[in-house]
Amino acid sequence: MLTQLAIRDFAIVDTLDLELAGGMTAITGETGAGKSILLGALGLCLGERSDAGSVRHGCERADLSARFDIAALPTARRWLEERELPVDDCLLRRVVTANGRSKAWINGQPATVADLKALGEHLVEIHGQHAHQLLLREETHLRLLDDFAGNRNAVTQLGETFRRWQAARRRLKQLTESGDEVQARRQLLRYQVEELDVLALGEDELATLEHEQEQLAHAEETLREAQIAAECCDNDENGVLTLLNQATHRLDPLPGSDRGTLSEIISMLGEARIQVEEAVRELHRFADATELDPERLAWVESRLGEVHRIARKHHVMPEELPALHCKLQAELEGLEGGEHDLEALRSEVETLRDSWRELARQVGETRQQAAGRFGKAVQEQLAFLAMGKARFEVAVETRQSPQAEGMEEVRFLISANPGQPPRPLAKVASGGELSRISLAIQVVAAQHSTIPSLVFDEVDVGISGATAEIVGQLLRRLGENGQVMTVTHLPQVAAQAHHHLHIEKQAKRDTTLTRMALLDEAGRVGELARMLGGVNLSDRTLAHAREMLDASQQGAAH
Fold this sequence. Notes:
Layout: E1 2-10, E2 13-19, E3 23-29, H1 35-45, E4 61-68, H2 74-82, E5 91-97, E6 102-106, E7 109-111, H3 113-120, E8 124-127, H4 131-134, H5 138-149, H6 152-177, H7 179-199, H8 205-217, H9 219-234, H10 240-251, H11 259-289, H12 294-313, H13 321-336, H14 338-384, E9 391-403, E10 406-415, E11 423-424, H15 425-428, H16 431-447, E12 453-457, H17 465-479, E13 483-487, H18 491-494, E14 499-508, E15 511-518, H19 521-533, H20 539-557
Parallel strand pairs: 3-13, 3-14, 8-12, 12-13
Antiparallel strand pairs: 1-2, 1-4, 4-5, 5-6, 6-7, 9-10, 10-11, 14-15
Helix pairs in contact: 5-14, 6-14, 7-13, 8-12, 9-11, 10-11, 14-16, 16-17, 19-20
């Protein structure tokens, strides 16, 4: 259950730390005091959408956190364990900045808003002010009946199976209708792949062919020039070696004081002669190794021409042909198995259809069995709410075509007056009657909820007098087995609560703030008196409030 709620700079609240307990907690205050702020802060911690208007005026961000005791909530603990989060605590935190952005944490670890929402579904169930309007929608009727029947997991599985079934049906239809196109594509791919198979271009072959073609095409010229270069160096009459030898012989016998310098020059000429001799030997070896092979050149050029021709045909670069070959081969293999895939897909569609039908049959039987029990339970609550003459029924009818949620349509029917046939809620119930019917349905739904924390946001609108006292008793009874928080304007409801949280708005200079506090017994009497008699409290009003509180607590004790 919810044990702590901390609010910082949210709406018109600057700082608020609330300690909450089990049982029924009434939340009251004057209109506009900010009762919805409490539920708004809780809603943001549970993953509701945020906006910049959530931040208190003049502040940079709103910081909200809610702590839950999950010792008795195995589904919430399992959710945390699956995500490797601590399970000895459950702290949800949400920060909303003035520019409308928000961040979320679960037990100190960063989380998404979707994570908050998913975990929150295991922690709190909120029955809001719009419950009356939702009850006029038949999809709400189906969901409530499924919750009452314990069908939630089965319906989820049913929907997943239905979606897989429909997806397989669409694939089968598409594959069947595109048969001619597939056959034409298969024939084209066979020709293209066979052509590339014959080409059999290796991954690095193109670069090797281009290099070899360049060498072969210039082999004759290269051989001729290498031989000429060797002749330039080694010619007996005017080759480089001959000239170097002549220069050395002329300098070597010279005497004189500059002999040291001449010796260095002679040494350099000797080194040059050695280098030239080595170059000549290498040129001869190169010329001997160079072969003229016109047949090989013709083959290489033919091979390159074929590669470029096929590349142009497929509108790709020559080096992209190996990758294209693999791609076309894979597509062809997929289409070659088309006939087998078609049969497999037909089998898959039939299997999913049969699975969905069996699940739908089981869920349908459960709905039929639960409908009577649900109607009877709501009927009992209506009698408790002074609508004993009304007749409430849950009609379960078979759909004409399968749907994700099954083959049943569920409608809540009501006959407010004896002798009148039950009709849909929207066509029969008045505003006050709809409020009581809505409350009766929500109480029945809450009694079968696995979530211990229930929030009722002004679900008692349109109710007054003795009926209001009965509503309070119903909510108190729910709170005895868990935690119920209810926002109310009715003193008869607030008097039944185990705890009473009062909200008031205070104006300080240019700032308006909301304060919230749990009331002691004297505070509760004063607040009930205000709810009974307005601003000016008489002794009689205070006495009435005291009597109402005492009677409620004594009645609860019995």
